[in-house]
Predict the 3D structure of the following.
Amino acid sequence: MPSLTLEDIARQTGVSRSTVSRVVNNQPNVRDDVRKKVKDVIHKTGFHPHAAARALASQHSSTIGLILPHSVSFFFTDPYYAHITKGIAQACNQHDYTLALFLVGSKDDEESIFPRVSRKGLLDGVLVQSGHHGDQEIIGRMIDAQMPIVVLGRPFRSDNVTYVDIDNIYASYQAVNHLIRLGRKRIGTIYGPAASTVGLDRKEGYRKALSEKGIQVDENLMVEGDFTEASGYFAMQRLVSAKPDAIFAASDAMAIGAIRAVRETGLRVPDDIAFVGFDDLPMASLTNVQLTTIRQPVVQFGIRAVEALLDQIENDDKQPHRIIMETELIIRETCGGKSR
Amino acid sequence: MPSLTLEDIARQTGVSRSTVSRVVNNQPNVRDDVRKKVKDVIHKTGFHPHAAARALASQHSSTIGLILPHSVSFFFTDPYYAHITKGIAQACNQHDYTLALFLVGSKDDEESIFPRVSRKGLLDGVLVQSGHHGDQEIIGRMIDAQMPIVVLGRPFRSDNVTYVDIDNIYASYQAVNHLIRLGRKRIGTIYGPAASTVGLDRKEGYRKALSEKGIQVDENLMVEGDFTEASGYFAMQRLVSAKPDAIFAASDAMAIGAIRAVRETGLRVPDDIAFVGFDDLPMASLTNVQLTTIRQPVVQFGIRAVEALLDQIENDDKQPHRIIMETELIIRETCGGKSR
DNA sequence: CTGAAAGCGCTTACAG
DNA sequence: CTGAAAGCGCTTACAG
C-alpha cells in the first residue's frame, strides 16, 4: 500500500486539505463534528504526515542533533555518555522531537558532517558535547550559521553561548574539604585532562580547598589522568612514592583504578589512604568498593540541556545562559570514619 | 544571512537550477567548464542543499533510525550498546547517512515514536535492536509498513527479516568445551535472560557441549542472570553450594561479579573454580581479572548491520538474510593451564 | 549538454 | 469555520 497523503484524507472525509492540516496540527477553527470526522478517518487509515514535506513547508524539522566532537568520540563507550544520551533521548521523546546522533570519529567525518548540521532543513538545533579546546571551531561555526545551540559542559570560550554544567570547582572543593575535615594531611589528586575545562576546574577546586586551609600544594601529589580506570591505576603507581594519605580522583573510574594499585602495594583503604571519586553513575559499580564520591545528575543534565535548546528554538530565546546543575557529596566507605 | 537556495546559485552562475542540481548531485551531462563554474560559486558561498526539500523531491531522506525497544533501553548504559552504536555511527558517516536514535523508554514512548519511524519521509530504513519477545510487535509493524529493516540480534521470529548476529550456540559450546578439555568436571553456567534469544542460545550451547561428552546436565549448576555484574554476583552466591569447579558466564560483567562472589568465600580462581566469560568489549576492564572469554566483534557488528540495511535501501534487496559474525575464544588467566 | 515545468506533500496567509 | 492558492526548495522526466 502506498503512503497516504493529506489529500487522500481530505477526499475521504469530504473536506479540504487545509482543514485536515488543521486537525492534524491541533489548530483551532475547525467545527467539532468536522474535527471528529477527520480524526476518525485518520485513525482508521493510520495516516501520518510526511516528515520532509512538513519540514519543508513549516521550516522546522522537529529534530535536534547531538554532536560528539572528535575529542570525545574516543571516550563514547564510557557510560557517562550513555547516561547523558539517555536523558537527552528521554526529553526528546517527551517533546516529540527526533534525535539525530553525530559521532565525529575523524577529521574527515567532521568535514562531511558539518554541512549537514549547520544548514537548517535537517536540524532545528544542536547539542554539542564539549569541554575540549578542539571543540571551539564547531561551536563557532554553529553560532555563525545561526543554528540554535546548547553546549554540554562549559566550553573554553563560554561568553556567547548557552551551556549546562555542574560547578566543578565547588564540587571538587567540597570533596577535598571532606578529606581535610577527616584529618588527612597529605592529600593528593588524580586530575582530568589539562586540555579540558572539567580537568582544569576539578584541579582548581582541589587547590582552592587546600590553600584555604593554608596547606601547601605539593606538585608531587598531583598526577594527570584521562578519566579511565587504567589511567587511575598508573597515576597511583606514580603517586605512592609521595606518600599521600588521601586522594581526590576526578572520576570514579580513576578512583577504582587507583584503589586497585594501592591494594597491590599492600596498603589499605581507607586506613592508609582515603579516596573520594567523582561521578557516581548509577550501577557503574563493576567493583566491590563502596566509594565516597561526588554525585552529578547525569540524566537530568541531558534533560535540562534539551529543555534549554527547545526554549531557544521555540521561544526564540537568544540570550546565552549558564545553567548549573546541583551536585552532592555521597559518603560511603573509602574515607573511613569522622576521626582517625 | 538567510540560507541560500539552488535558485540563488543558479542566478549567480547564470545557469538553470536543473544544472546546479546536477552538479550538486554529481550527475553527468554538465559541460566541464560549467560544472567548474557552478562548483566555484557553491564553494564560495558555502551553499548546501536543504535536506527536507531534497528528501521530499527525491523521496529519500538519507537517514536511518536506530530503535532500541523498551526491553533494552533499561540496559542502554551497558557499554555493549555504546560499542554497537559506535559502529553504526561510523558506518553512517562513511556512507553519508544521518543516524536518528530512538530510545523507547516506555509504552507511551512507543506510541509516540512509532508513527514517526514507520512512515517514509523521515527515515529510509531502520535498525532494530532485538532478541526479546516484546520486540516482535515493532518488527512486525515495520515490515507491514514496508520499511526496510535490519534486526540486531536474532529475533524470535526470524524467517522473514534480515538480521545480524553471532552464532551464540557455537560460541558457547566452544567456551564450555574449553573448560571440559581442561579437565573440569562440574561445570556450571550463569545464563542470560530466558526471555531473550541470546540467553536461550548461550544456554543451549552449554548443554550441547556437556551432552556431547556424555556429561549429565545438572539443573543446580544453572542460574539465570541479566548480564549485569550484580546479577552475576548473586547468581554465584547461589551456585557455590552446588560445588562447581568451573562456570561459563554469558557475559563478562556476570563473570566479574561471580568471581568477586567466589573470592569472598575464600575460594581461588582458577584453582578452585575456573571461569569463561562472554563479550570481551575493548577496555571494559574495570577490574584486574584477566578473563578468558568469547570475543564478539561488536563495532563490526554495527557496521555490518548498516551495510545490510543500505543494501536493502539502495539496491532494493528484499530477500531476508542471516548475517553471522565470527567469534573467537580468548584465553587468558581465569581457566588456568592445560592440565590440573 | 541544457532549461522550463511539473511535482514531491505539506503549511499558511488570504478571502470569504 | 472553511477552502483555493501560493509556496517551501529541491528532483526529475521531457523536449530541445
